Amino acid sequence: MSDSETPSAKEQLTRSLREKCNAQSVATPTSTSSSMSLPGARMSSFIPSRFESSYARPAMKTTSVYFDEYPITSTFVIIFSSLTIFPVLTFIALSLFTILSLSFLALCCAFVVSSAVILFFLSILILCVITAFFASGFFTALAISTYPLVAFLETKTRFIRPKRREPSDESAVVVDMKEAPSEDILVGDVKQENL
Q1: Is the dihedral of CA 104, 108, 111, 117 positive or negative?
Q2: In whole angstroms, what is the distance from residue 53 CA to residue 40 CA?
Q3: Predicted local confidence at residue 138, as pLDDT
Q4: Residue 52 and residue 38: Cα distance in Å, rounded?
Q5: Sign of CA dihedral 13, 14, 19, 20
Q6: Does the pTM exceed 0.85?
Q7: Cα–Cα distance between 83 and 74 in angstroms, integer?
Q8: Residue 67, Cβ neighbours under 10 Å: how many?
Q9: Segments of the chain with pLDDT less than 50
Q10: How far apart are the C-alpha atoms of 147 and 135, rounded to whole Å?
Q11: Which DSSP helix (H) or strand (E) runs through 193?
Q12: Are 71 and 5 in contact (CB under 8 A)?
């Protein structure tokens, strides 16, 4: 309690707060006798009464006690909270919006880039498959066309008689005589000397 506060001002603020709390309790009925006639009224009256009994009443009692002890500080906190709730909620909303929008943008960019890379590799694959198709067609045609050619050449050699060579006295073996003959020539197991 500060020295500048007079007990009369403190009592006036306390009385005002209690009157507001009492007016609130009179405005909200605790019995559900009139609302029980509606089909969904029991559940709808249960939720506010449970919230009221579990959270709202204890919070109002705590606020009332705190306001009795520190009326100026309580007034400042209430006004400060009222003035800052909108900027704080706006900051949280904008932060979440920024995070979500940038994440979405990043995912979209990743999707576009990956699609472009996949299309590039797909075009290379299609080019390779088309090249292999035409190469296999060419090699198949080549293999098919070589069979008649080979068959033609075989039949040609059967009907054309080779030229006869006249027998000669010369040997068909050619010996390269660039090296000087050695003195000992091995023929079989017997060592013979050159004459």
Answers
A1: negative
A2: 20
A3: 96
A4: 21
A5: positive
A6: no
A7: 14
A8: 23
A9: 1, 3, 31-38, 41, 195
A10: 19
A11: strand 190-193
A12: yes
Which of 25, 15, 87 lies closest to 60, judged by CA? 25
Residue 8, pLDDT score: 76
DSSP letters spanning 12-76: HHHHHHHHHHHHHHHHS-S--TTGGGSTTHHHHHHHHHHHIIIIIHHHHHHHHHHHHH-HHHHHH
Residues 6+ apart with CB under 8 A from 60: 21, 24
Q: What is the pLDDT of residues 3-33, one digit of tens each?
A: 455 567 777 777 777 777 676 655 555 544 4
179 vs 158: CA distance, rounded Å: 44
Q: How far apart are CA 152 and CA 155, in angstroms?
A: 5
Angle at 38 between CA 37 and CA 40, to 5 degrees: 135
CA atoms within 13 A of residue 179's CA, in its CB half-sphere? 4
Q: Which two tokens stand for residue 12?
A: 């006036």
Instruction: Give residues with Cβ within 8 angstroms of 172, minimum separation 6.
Output: none
Local structure of residue 188 (DSSP, 8 states): T
Q: What is the C-alpha to C-alpha distance for residues 10 and 19, in angstroms, rounded to an integer?
A: 14
Report the pLDDT value the prediction gives residue 104, as an integer from 0 to 100. 97
Q: In the 8-state DSSP scheme, what is residue 54?
A: I
